[in-house]
Task: inverse folding
């Protein structure tokens, strides 16, 4: 089994910053894509930022240079540094990994989500 655990969400004022963390653990053979998605109430889940299988980064247009995705040395940990937060960034943020297990099965894994609320 593979588990993804996020942390770092919370309440922040507009213009503030937060850093999200995600750690993957379990029967991992290799990690391919790993990144962040979000889902606001009444909306579909959408990509925020991700590392591709080739190691490059992809950001959603709405990020506009405000967020930075990074990886830990073990590559099974991914971070999202968010700055200049806006009320419209309020959502549940999910970590997603495309992971090959020790059984050599590759599939998507999701964390449980962490709430980010941007409000005065």
Result:
């Amino acid at each position: 089994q593979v588990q993804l655990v996020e942390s770092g969400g919370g309440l922040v004022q507009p213009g503030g910053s937060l850093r999200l963390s995600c750690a993957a653990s379990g029967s991992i053979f290799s990690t391919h894509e790993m990144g962040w998605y979000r889902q606001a109430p009444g909306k579909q889940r959408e990509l925020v930022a991700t590392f591709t299988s080739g190691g490059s980064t992809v950001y959603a247009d709405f990020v506009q240079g405000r967020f930075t995705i990074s990886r830990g040395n073990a590559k099974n940990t991914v971070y999202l540094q968010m700055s200049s937060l806006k009320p419209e960034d309020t959502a549940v943020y999910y970590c997603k990994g495309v992971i090959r297990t020790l059984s050599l099965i590759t599939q998507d894994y999701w964390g449980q989500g962490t709430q980010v609320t941007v409000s005065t």
The chain has a mean pLDDT of 95. DSSP finds no helices and eleven strands in the chain. The first strand starts at residue 2 and ends at 7.
